[in-house]
Design goal:
33% of the residues are buried. The longest helix has 22 residues, at 47-68. This protein is 49% helix and 15% strand. It is globular, with a radius of gyration of 19 Å. The chain has a five-stranded mixed beta sheet, with helices on both faces. Helix 5 links the parallel strand 4 (135-138) and strand 5. By secondary structure, it is α/β, with parallel strands linked by helices. Helix 4 crosses helix 5 (142-151). It has eight helices and five strands; from the N terminus they run H-H-H-E-E-E-H-E-H-E-H-H-H.
Amino acid sequence: MSRRDPFKQHRFPRDVILLAVRWYCRYPLSYRDVRDLLAERGITADAATIYRWVQKFGPEIRKRAYGAHRSWRGLQWHVDETYVRVNGRWCYLWRAVDQRGQLIDFRLTARRNANAARTFMRQASETARCCYPMTIVTDKAHSYAKVIEEMNFGNGLDERIRHVDGKYLNKRIEADHAALKQLLRPKRSFRKLTAAENTLKGIETHRAIKKGHFANNEPGILNEIAFVANLFDAAA
């Protein structure tokens, strides 16, 4: 059964909407920057309209990419959290990548504690379509050790997750944090947690598409454009 057309009742054509969303999520641009780039091409859309497109189609692109094109993720995870400002307050962005740098999942929370870590680990396992990884590399935060010990409860020696913690052992995900922050810097802070989550879904998905981290997805700008277009063509 085909899905409902998400572009129905939009005044602008599909290609314009996807272009604006890709520009915002793929490059270090603000909504006004995207508005001006569209204006140079004779397309008049205000910044608020582009914001609504990102809020709607960022999560939609993620859902379709992970639903039909999810690729295999490695069994060595690098897990860490970084900070994102939401409505003037710092919130915690939990992220995990595998040994190849492929994003496993992310979660934005208002607090940093064992409950948040536990929920994120469960969510990441569901996204990766595996029960648990073989190895998890973290920093020295105590919440990780507690959650991983809970995950190992009842497992035999051969099934236990190996926890590697060290201040300088998690450079892979820290470098990925830095690349993400470069994209977020021109966008300034978010006003609502839900808006931040929706925007990050679009940004993280487009970053994965750029790197060719989905099935039937090759790196290269033309391949990126075609891949996103095909996400919606397949359900037409």
